[in-house]
Amino acid sequence: MRRLGAGDYSAGAAELAPWFLGKILCREREGAAARLRITETEAYCGETDSACHARFGKTERTKIMYRRGGFAYVYLCYGIHWLLNLVTGPEEFPEAVLIRGAGMWDGPGKLTRALNIDRGFNGEDLTVSKRLWLEDDGFRPLYQATPRIGVAYAAPADRERLWRFKAYSDSPSAGST
DNA sequence: AAAGTGATCATG
DNA sequence: ATGATCACTTTG
């Protein structure tokens, strides 16, 4: 069991999104740590990705995406849901991976609701945080890649990219090594 | 199928 | 200051 460090977040989002599948999302509160295996992710890849929040450049909201990988990017979606993203890549490359499902929760909004993750986690450094981090226990699930959800506004080429990754199983016994 | 919800961003 | 937009969820 190993906490992910800055080096683990240094590749691009499209490469890391499937790699995050099977990693363990750890949320500590009131002395107890919830550990949920990540089952679904999506990659958002920089200013040239017309589905990415950074498509209009660096703003107050997106500036966290321009930091080095390993920070959390948390934003409010549709006025209701806080969505958790993992910033990836080197400084000044605004890429991030949306966590769409983990453990028993499918849906990015349900997950953050269950874990009490809100705007207070935006900018959290997951490589050192005492309340939110990722661990690797070696499990690598099989997965399928599909187009991303909810990006109808993006250019056709970006809509079609297979940047959504879903594990077939969150149980080590049913997956590969 | 469609509403509910409010931060964010562009415009004035 | 105002209006359009939106990486979702729930209800019918």
Features:
177 residues, mainly beta, 10-stranded antiparallel β-sheet, 3-methyladenine DNA Glycosylase, Chain A, single chain, DNA-binding, globular, 33% strand
Number of structural domains: 1
General form: globular
Mean pLDDT: 94
Taken in chain order, the helices and strands follow as EHEEEEEEHEEHE
Summing up helix and strand content along with how strands pair, one would put the structural category as mainly beta
The first-level CATH class is given as: Alpha Beta
Regions with pLDDT < 50 over 5+ consecutive residues? none
**How many strand segments?**
10
Helical content (DSSP H or I, runs of 4+): 10-25%
CATH superfamily descriptor: Methylpurine-DNA glycosylase (MPG)
Distance N to C terminus:
15 Å
Please describe the topology of this protein.
Layout: E1 2-3, H1 13-20, E2 24-29, E3 32-45, E4 72-77, E5 81-88, E6 95-102, E7 105-106, H2 108-115, E8 132-136, E9 143-146, H3 156-160, E10 164-167
The protein binds a DNA duplex (12 and 12 nucleotides) through strand 4, strand 5 and helix 2.
Describe this structure in words.
Strands 1, 2, 3, 4, 5, 6, 7, 8, 9 and 10 form a ten-stranded antiparallel sheet that branches. By secondary structure, the chain is mainly β. It has three helices and ten strands. The protein has helices spanning 13-20, 108-115, 156-160; strands at 2-3, 24-29, 32-45, 72-77, 81-88, 95-102, 105-106, 132-136, 143-146, 164-167. The protein has one domain: Methylpurine-DNA glycosylase (MPG) (3-methyladenine DNA Glycosylase, Chain A). The relative contact order is 0.24. Helix content is 12%, strand content 33%. It binds a DNA duplex (12 and 12 nucleotides) through β4, β5 and α2.
